[in-house]
Design goal:
Blueprint (H helix, E strand, L loop, with lengths): L14 H11 L2 H9 L10 H12 L7 H11 L10 H10 L5 E4 L5 E6 L1 H13 L8 E8 L2 E2 L6 E2 L5 E3 L2 E5 L2 E8 L9 H14 L3 E7 L6 H9 L3 E5 L4 H8 L5 E5 L2 E10 L8 E9 L13 E8 L6 H9 L3 H11 L11 H26 L11 H9 L3 E6 L2 E6 L10
Parallel strand pairs: 3-9, 9-10
Antiparallel strand pairs: 1-2, 2-8, 3-7, 4-6, 5-6, 7-8, 10-14, 11-12, 12-13, 13-14, 15-16
Helix pairs in contact: 2-6, 3-5, 6-12, 7-8
Amino acid sequence: MKVTNSTENIGAFGGLNFISEKFNTLEFNSLIENRLGKRSAQSAYSYADVIKNLWLLFLSGGDCAEDIEEHLRSDFLQIPDLKVCSADTIGRVLKNLKQEKETHFSNSGIEHQFSNHNKLNALNIDMLLKTNSLKAGGFYDFDFDHQFIPCKKYDSKKSYKMKRGYFPGVSTIGKHIVHIENRNGNTNVKYKQAATLKNAYCLLKSKNISIDRSRMDCGSFSKEIIDVIEQNSNLIYIRAQRCAELSTQIRAVKDWKKAQIGLFDVEVCSVNYTPFKGDKTYRYVVSRQLNKTGQTDLEFQDSFIYRAILTNDLASSDQEIIEYYNQRGAAEKIFDQMNNDFGWSKLPFSFLEENTVFMLIMAMCRNFYLHLLKIFSEKVTFVKTTYRLKKFIFRFVVVPFKWIRQSRQNILKLYTQKAYHLLI
């Protein structure tokens, strides 16, 4: 085997040129500047420069800012109109974007820390509108869930699972994250969740985005929270928690209907029930399924597993409501991608409010990535909307490239047979 070296200036990540161009075409630079403001006149880099560097870093396989210095600088320097930042600059600018966290004390005197960033949450929605992922005047389905992120940061606290970390509340529409409020790990999911949801709904309403249906798990099952959800949605679907009175009513049901939900045979029914000793009655869609152990449930005196969904939907069938609610499992895929592809599992800073900035900017990056998959897959066959980030990098981003000057034009030369020219 013989080895020769070449000084020819060839980069490895040619696909970044198309991603950078799409960033520019969407006018994200001016949008970011309008929402976050200009940095001081002495600053060499704008907020848009820093965000673009961070996005391209992850979209080329990096997972920390230092990868620009160690692996990617020579490639980044070849991308037109990209002002390449140092790792220190990225970290310093993100820290400067932080907003002070809020501290609340529960009735028992426990301290709870919350971090909300109105500007970045609003910027995220504006970007989704720019890419037509959301449209003003549209009606959408809204999901909300909490994601525990284990991390040993300076201010992180232990959860009920006795692990240190953060516990952000994440709102989604379809595949897109639309709002994040970070909270420390010791905070119960129901604590001030109504206020979190109000913030998310109000932001969407301010952008002329309306909610048709909202669905959430039993972590949102409280009167205060349900009142907020119902005030901001046409229809609601909330996983209900057990109570003795409801269980008694369910045991009295004789008319169970057989249905197949996914791969499972279940029995379903509906009952009307007034929760929280209030004055409003809701429809409860109940399903039951034989457990695998055959053990008898002490409360129901049978071997079924019971589940109930609280809803104000009176038109859909029991099976339709259960199948619709079960689709919220897609949120787990979003958390998986954020943790493993977009840096949430390796938060870079020591404090809650600083990491909130990083989490929001990376949520915007993932939303942008979904837009790239959509528009690129419409023009070339080697990109699919189902690609995870790693496959997208291998199939699209990694391609040797070189910029050459020919006939008074700058021409991107790609060393591949793939039809990248169709993207122009």
